[in-house]
Amino acid sequence: MVKSNIKAIFKSDIAKVWETVTDNRNYVWRSDLSKIEILDDGKFVEYRKDGFPTMFTVTRKEPCSRYEFDMENKNMRGHWIGIFTETADGTVIDFTEEVTVKNPFMKLLAGLYLKKQQKTYVNDLKKELRER
Predict the structure, then answer these.
(1) Cα dihedral angle (17, 24, 117, 129), rounded to 10 degrees?
(2) What integer is the mean pLDDT of 17-23?
(3) Which H or E element spans position 122?
(4) Which of 4, 23, 41, 45 could connect to 114 by a Cys-Cys bridge, CB 3.0–4.6 Å?
(5) pLDDT tens sequence across 103-114
């Protein structure tokens, strides 16, 4: 199992950060995605720019507090936890991703890949919230 965590502080209020992160209909701010296909209220598929799909199943959604989902594609399966905390100055996000890599050769690079993905996500989120 490979685990990666990222924390970031935003000046935006928690409701705006929450809405931006959890609204799968508005994904154009994500530089790594070509589209998101919503299957039903708790399931969706993200497609990377190269068309590679990953299936997501929401397992917990506590507004402005906690968001969790399981994810799977042909290379990995895992769980993602997002914690949102309101502060006097804005919002703190704490995102943790744990994956089991299906291909043993890819396991060596999985930690670096997850970190890169998390940094890209936070940078994209900062741009979308106009905090750059």
Answers:
(1) -30
(2) 98
(3) helix 107-128
(4) 4
(5) 888 888 899 999
